[in-house]
Amino acid sequence: MHARSVAAAAIDGVTGELFQSKLTPSHEHVVSRVQALPGPVAVTYEAGPTGFGLYRHLAAAGIRCEVAAPSKLQKPSGDRVKTDAKDAIHLARLLRPDEVTSVAIPSVDRGGRPGSGPCP
């Protein structure tokens, strides 16, 4: 997730078909696109400077979201070129078998305001 765009990937749980798209970074846009998918749906993204605002928007909409700890992600073997699209596919593949190690989400009352970063 970046200031200008979000690389998204989804895997159909029944067929295994892979879908990719670019979304705007608007939390409302991401939530509406996820809600349009046939359920049940789960979302993951890497923890980073964008904070936990997206997590909070997804959770408020009743969508399961895991914020992945980047240092705990299994790395694809032999793949040295890192792109947002490849990362999105890799995260989608890890989420299916529940192989994402999540970070703890700080509560808003701990000093973090909605949309703020990980530091209280």
Please give a handful of descriptors for the protein shown.
two-stranded parallel ribbon, 120 residues, 4 strands, 3 helices, disordered C terminus, single chain, alpha+beta
The best one-word shape is globular
Structural class: alpha+beta
Biggest sheet, open or closed, and with what strands and sense?
2 strands, antiparallel
How many helices does DSSP assign? 3
State which percent range the strand residues make up.
Answer: 15-25%
The average pLDDT score comes to 84
Helix content class: 10-25%
Q: Name the helix and strand elements from N-terminus to C-terminus, one letter apiece.
A: EEHEHEH
Unreliable spans are 114-120
Cα-atom radius of gyration: 14 Å
Number of strands: 4
Q: What is the secondary structure topology, with strand pairs?
A:
Layout: E1 6-11, E2 18-23, H1 27-35, E3 42-46, H2 53-60, E4 64-68, H3 84-95
Parallel strand pairs: 3-4
Antiparallel strand pairs: 1-2
Helix pairs in contact: 1-2
Please summarize what this structure is:
This protein has 120 residues and is α+β, with helices and mostly antiparallel strands. The chain has 3 helices and 4 strands.
